[in-house]
């Protein structure tokens, strides 16, 4: 629904909405890919104890795919925060700094950088085999595990916790605090303008400025809510990852695994709740979504010849213009 609304013509023009659209794309692929993983882990595996090579391959793919796209989501969220910071801090130069080309570069970089950052993860985790025996016989089982020997294991956790998690969270914390301060200053500025409006001419100007400021504040509040929700879901993962790098494999297997499902739940919740945030905090998003629903709902009741008549009228008008031009000496 986010992608459907943010790709409408009146919404897609803003670079902020382009960033939000690709953020929704990354989140929806993470959530869709999580469905077969959940079915296998919580429904099939407890019943059948199927540790086949094909499922081990899928788990390896699931881990890398989800990690790459989730990292892309982190990069897009960081780009979103920096973009809004520049638009407010340098509002007089925002048309030069916040261009469509730079927005495209930010989006492209957000999808190119994650595979590079995840290279240590590719090298650490692999499929392992184990001989097991029971009453029915013996055989090989395949499972996913890390190669916890050597410095690459430590490097992976440092990259994952510090570069991918804690560093973006630190930057977002600083920008979020600055945005909160900017909102407070904007409210004080609006109060001063209302007190200043003594004459009718000044009152009209103040009302126009007040509407523009309210629109800017609504956008900033919505993005601030997205950033704070991101911090709540990502900061605990960064802290646990950092402690895993400091304390070693024992902490990772005993403690990180206990909170792994909660961390996954928070990450999925972060992607799923954005639609509610947009609807509750953006009037333009609500209006576009309502129009999209009404358009699809009432499309079958529209006359089928409407587009034909419109094109016929347009062609007639064009022919009249051409005949007028030829008649001018």
Automatic annotation (TrEMBL):
<keyword id="KW-0812">Transmembrane</keyword>
<protein>
    <recommendedName>
        <fullName>G-protein coupled receptors family 1 profile domain-containing protein</fullName>
    </recommendedName>
</protein>
<feature type="transmembrane region" description="Helical">
    <location>
        <begin position="55"/>
        <end position="83"/>
    </location>
</feature>
<keyword id="KW-1133">Transmembrane helix</keyword>
<feature type="transmembrane region" description="Helical">
    <location>
        <begin position="157"/>
        <end position="184"/>
    </location>
</feature>
<dbReference type="InterPro" id="IPR019427">
    <property type="entry name" value="7TM_GPCR_serpentine_rcpt_Srw"/>
</dbReference>
<feature type="transmembrane region" description="Helical">
    <location>
        <begin position="20"/>
        <end position="43"/>
    </location>
</feature>
<dbReference type="GO" id="GO:0008528">
    <property type="term" value="F:G protein-coupled peptide receptor activity"/>
</dbReference>
<keyword id="KW-0472">Membrane</keyword>
<dbReference type="InterPro" id="IPR017452">
    <property type="entry name" value="GPCR_Rhodpsn_7TM"/>
</dbReference>
<feature type="domain" description="G-protein coupled receptors family 1 profile">
    <location>
        <begin position="1"/>
        <end position="278"/>
    </location>
</feature>
<feature type="transmembrane region" description="Helical">
    <location>
        <begin position="104"/>
        <end position="125"/>
    </location>
</feature>
<comment type="similarity">
    <text>Belongs to the G-protein coupled receptor 1 family.</text>
</comment>
<dbReference type="Pfam" id="PF10324">
    <property type="entry name" value="7TM_GPCR_Srw"/>
</dbReference>
<dbReference type="InterPro" id="IPR000276">
    <property type="entry name" value="GPCR_Rhodpsn"/>
</dbReference>
<feature type="transmembrane region" description="Helical">
    <location>
        <begin position="222"/>
        <end position="242"/>
    </location>
</feature>
<dbReference type="GO" id="GO:0005886">
    <property type="term" value="C:plasma membrane"/>
</dbReference>
<feature type="transmembrane region" description="Helical">
    <location>
        <begin position="262"/>
        <end position="281"/>
    </location>
</feature>
<dbReference type="InterPro" id="IPR053219">
    <property type="entry name" value="GPCR_Dmsr-1"/>
</dbReference>
């Amino acid at each position: 629904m986010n992608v459907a609304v943010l790709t409408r013509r009146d919404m897609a023009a803003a670079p902020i909405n382009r960033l939000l659209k690709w953020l929704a794309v990354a989140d929806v692929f993470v959530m869709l890919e999580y469905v077969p993983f959940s079915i296998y882990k919580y429904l099939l595996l407890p019943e059948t104890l199927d540790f086949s090579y094909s499922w081990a391959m899928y788990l390896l793919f699931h881990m890398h795919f989800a990690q790459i796209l989730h990292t892309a989501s982190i990069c897009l969220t960081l780009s979103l925060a920096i973009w809004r910071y520049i638009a407010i801090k340098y509002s007089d130069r925002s048309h030069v700094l916040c261009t469509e080309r730079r927005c495209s570069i930010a989006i492209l970089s957000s999808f190119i950088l994650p595979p590079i950052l995840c290279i240590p993860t590719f090298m650490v985790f692999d499929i392992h085999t184990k001989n097991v025996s029971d009453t029915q016989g013996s055989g090989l089982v395949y499972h996913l595990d890390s190669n916890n020997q050597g410095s690459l294991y430590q490097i992976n956790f440092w990259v994952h916790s510090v570069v991918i998690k804690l560093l973006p969270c630190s930057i977002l914390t600083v920008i979020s605090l600055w945005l909160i301060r900017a909102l407070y200053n904007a409210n004080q500025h609006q109060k001063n303008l209302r007190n200043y409006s003594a004459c009718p001419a000044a009152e009209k100007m103040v009302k126009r400025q007040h509407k523009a400021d309210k629109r800017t504040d609504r956008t900033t509040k919505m993005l601030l809510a997205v950033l704070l929700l991101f911090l709540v879901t990502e900061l605990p993962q960064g802290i646990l990852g950092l402690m895993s790098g400091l304390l070693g494999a024992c902490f990772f297997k005993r403690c990180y695994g206990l909170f792994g499902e909660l961390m996954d739940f928070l990450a999925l919740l972060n992607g799923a709740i954005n639609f509610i945030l947009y609807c509750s905090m953006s009037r333009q998003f609500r209006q576009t979504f309502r129009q999209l629903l009404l358009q699809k709902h009432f499309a079958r009741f529209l006359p089928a010849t409407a587009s034909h008549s419109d094109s016929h009228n347009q062609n007639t008008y064009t022919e009249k213009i051409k005949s007028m031009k030829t008649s001018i000496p």
